[in-house]
Amino acid sequence: MSADLKVVSLPREGWREPVATLRLIADQMESGEIEACSIGAMVMIYESGGVGLFGFGPKAEDLQTLAAFRIGEQLMLDTILDGE
Q1: Which long-range contacts (CB under 8 A, 24 or more apart) does 62-71 make?
Q2: pTM (2 decimals)?
């Protein structure tokens, strides 16, 4: 895995609509604006309170997907803490 990690910023307004946000990400990947995904990880908390976990991409085996979740968690914390 490359050490060059990129946090993709989504505007504060407009990202609250899940379907539109997922389409935007897919459109940006297809256009080349976002690099192709080798491992993706996504968590969704449903209105019912249930949790959906998704690992995807050509290299998304269980441990790689878990690592992607953890890297994402750390990047999110760093972004939040740097903003204060």
Answers
A1: 64/39, 65/39, 65/41, 66/41, 67/1, 67/39, 68/39, 68/40, 68/41, 69/41, 69/43, 71/5
A2: 0.69
Tokens of 15: 């990202």
DSSP, res 41? E
Note the pLDDT tens digit of each residue in 41-50: 999 999 999 9
Q: Give the residue ranges of DSSP H helices in the chain.
A: 18-31, 62-82
Q: How far apart are CA 24 and CA 45, in angstroms?
A: 20
Looking at every residue in the chain, the average pLDDT score rounds to 87
Cβ neighbourhood burial of 57 (10 Å; 0-12, 13-18, 19+): middle
DSSP state of 52: E
Q: Which residue has the tokens 């991409």?
A: 57
